[in-house]
Write a structure and sequence with these properties.
The protein is of the alpha/beta class and 309 residues long. Helix content is 41%, strand content 14%. A five-stranded parallel β-sheet has the order 7-6-5-8-9. The chain has a four-stranded parallel β-sheet with strand order 2-1-3-4, sandwiched between helices. The radius of gyration is 19 Å and the shape is globular. Bound molecules: phosphoric acid mono(formamide)ester (CP) and norvaline.
Length: 309
């Protein structure tokens, strides 16, 4: 499968069939790993990871994914590159395009990946910006499908910050017409334009300030840190603002009795999620983390692999 888009900057770049095809392919790659499924899909190619923020899961899963598809991978901390010395993004994009077959980029402003994509001849993949985290939410859809199956259309809840993850969930809801109920403190709600976009595409989205209301009947309860990377100075203010938004066992009593809990990690136990929930029977966070690998492989194959004959 090849995606119609040249770059993956946001889930908005994909249509419903492509999202579903990526989830299906990631599941195939996961099941087929012992038999070497996809082992030559990127043979002879090079994938560069350009990261301006820390990462454990995204970095390792992309590096391992590239290797398992037969590509070589190089990791570039942007502080060690000329980007730090203000080489223009458009120059970096054109130079990198002469060396590598894809760039996976983690950065602050979303306009950075947009600018790189504008000037790059090779696919640019968003590995997290302040605005979106598409690869995470795509792999979360695989985790949901594994645990809940295809038979039901689950009700999704988002509890906490209206951040990059919430934005990507809204765009997944738009692509797949999901029911997504968000509870975020006032002042920390998602961008209204993204909420409106999701609704305009047929997603059923509610947005309020009551976590109990948001999780009612939800089969999938997701949360994320209260202070994202780059917001460390706001951590104390945010802890106060987010009081009452912890995903704990009391809150889960209001959710569907078989609800699963997602957290993209890293987690702050006792803040956005309790220790008991994170380590408890409803938590699927370790499968969720593993699935990053399988989804990165599906994404790389669909953007960088040889076109289907
Ligand atoms: N969930 C996630 O993106 O984790 P990392 O920051 O470790 O990559
Ligand atoms: N919202 C978090 C996600 C980390 C994977 C952040 O941007 O830091």
């Amino acid at each position: 499968m090849r995606l119609k888009t040249n770059h993956l900057l946001t889930i908005r770049d994909l249509d419903a069939e492509e999202v579903q095809a990526l989830v299906r392919r990631a599941a195939q790659l996961k099941a087929g790993r012992p038999a070497g499924e996809g082992a030559t899909a990127l043979a002879g190619k090079t994938v560069a990871l350009v990261f301006e923020k820390p990462s454990t899961r995204t970095r390792v899963s992309f590096e391992v994914a590239a290797g398992q598809l037969g590509a070589q991978c190089l990791f570039m901390a942007s502080r060690d590159t000329q980007l730090r010395r203000s080489e223009p993004l458009k120059d970096t994009a054109r130079v990198m395009s002469r060396y590598v077959d894809a760039m996976v980029v983690r950065t602050f402003g979303h306009e950075v990946v947009e600018e790189l994509a504008k000037y790059s001849d090779v696919p640019v993949i968003n590995a997290l910006t302040d605005r979106y985290h598409p690869c995470q939410v795509l792999s979360d859809l695989l985790t949901v499908q594994e645990h809940l199956g295809d038979a039901v259309a689950p009700v999704y809840a988002w509890i906490g910050d209206g951040n990059n993850m919430a934005h990507s969930w809204l765009e997944a809801a738009a692509a797949l017409k999901l029911e997504l109920n968000l509870a975020c403190p006032l002042g920390f709600t998602p961008d209204p334009a993204i909420v409106e976009y999701a609704r305009s595409k047929g997603a059923r989205v509610t947005l309020g300030q009551d976590p109990v209301e948001a999780v009612k009947g939800a089969q999938v309860v997701s949360t994320d840190v209260w202070a994202s990377m780059g917001q460390e100075d706001e951590a104390e203010r945010r802890r106060r603002a987010f009081a009452g938004f912890t995903v704990d066992e009391t809150l889960l009593q209001a959710a569907h009795q078989e609800a699963i809990v997602l957290h993209c990690l890293p987690a702050h136990r006792g803040e956005e999620i309790s220790e008991a929930v994170l380590e408890g029977p409803r938590s699927v966070v370790w499968d969720q983390a593993e699935n990053r690998l399988h989804m990165q492989k599906a994404i790389l194959e669909a953007l960088v692999g040889a076109p289907a004959k």
